[in-house]
Description:
GO molecular function: oxidoreductase activity
Domain NADP-dependent oxidoreductase: 25-338
Low-confidence stretches: none
Structural class: alpha/beta
Protein name: NADP-dependent oxidoreductase domain-containing protein
Distance between the termini: 40 Å
CATH architecture: Alpha-Beta Barrel
Oligomer: single chain
InterPro entries: AKR_Detox_Biosynth, NAD(P)_OxRdtase_dom_sf, NADP_OxRdtase_dom
Number of domains: 1
CATH class: Alpha Beta
GO cellular component, one term: cytosol
Amino acid sequence: MDSIPDDSKSKYVFLGKSGLRVSNLCLGTMTFGEPAIPGWPGQLDEAGSHALINRYVEWGGNFIDTANIYGRGKSETIVGSWLAKQERDRFVVATKVRGTMDSTNPNAVGLSRRHIIDSVEQSLRRLQTDYVDLLQIHNWDDATPLEETLLTLNDLVRCGKVRYLGASNLVGWQLQKIIEVSKHMGLSNFISLQQQYSLVSRESEMDPFVVCQLNGLGVLPWSPLKGGLLTGKIERGQRPEGGRLGWCTKDETLNMESLPAWSAIDKDSYWTTLDVAQKIATSRGKSVAQVSLRWLLQKSVVSSVIIGATKMHQLDDNMGAANGWTLTEDEMKQLDDASTFDVPYPYKMAIGMARSRQNPWHPAGWL
């Protein structure tokens, strides 16, 4: 494989307002081991996963994201067998807790004290490490008092098993409540929000990202290429046949955020956005994927973008967005304008009124 010039390698950025520095592209590991959903194609075995991580490290990457629920622990196990051979303190490892780990055990789900502690202990064993750098709640849990969840997470930070806290897939009021309750109780701050974010999925700009911007949380976009849509491999009206996108679009009942049905993808607004991204990519000698990732990297609220790959050439192409070039202000505006989405009430009214009355000494936070 080609060597990588230093000026093309990943930049290191602060994760939110914390002192933790991570590479601006994070390696997501949902493709490692068994598929999250039976039949999902493109999973990597241990050897293939390790080779991918090694190449990612050659690109300067130091940030690896997994979750206990990925392959019911198989992803963490594969990351752990690789991590055991490395200098542990050179890497930032993130995992998550909340999902169902055993359908026969009513306590093996959620954000209760019991499940969080059990899950972290098991994650540490699978990852073959004494601590997790970033523990993220994978979603909200209505069944558990927030105070119970936050006190448990704080205890894990205090005893050194977890270094930093983050969240994933939250709406704005949930994230703000976490911030306020943590502050009121004198508990560890959350430093990040992992959220779906791309040129065709910008809805979180309306609320969750405003909370992040006003409170210093770094955003970690997942599905930045919308399952392959933003790679430019398919054209308007051309239903994908192969790969993950082709597999998941065959079944309309699988219309999940990470597994979009064709009816959720085949939209004029998406194709218009892709046309603009393709035009910019052609003029700059870059791929559509690189332009799509670069757009995210230049958003002020974003710390690091989570990429996933099953082939080495995909990883190399994605990592080519990390450094050495930027989109111009005009190119960013073209992409912003093309990917504009319908903003419902009351957000449209609130954003419009905020933008008409700006005070530089008191930023409103709207993106």
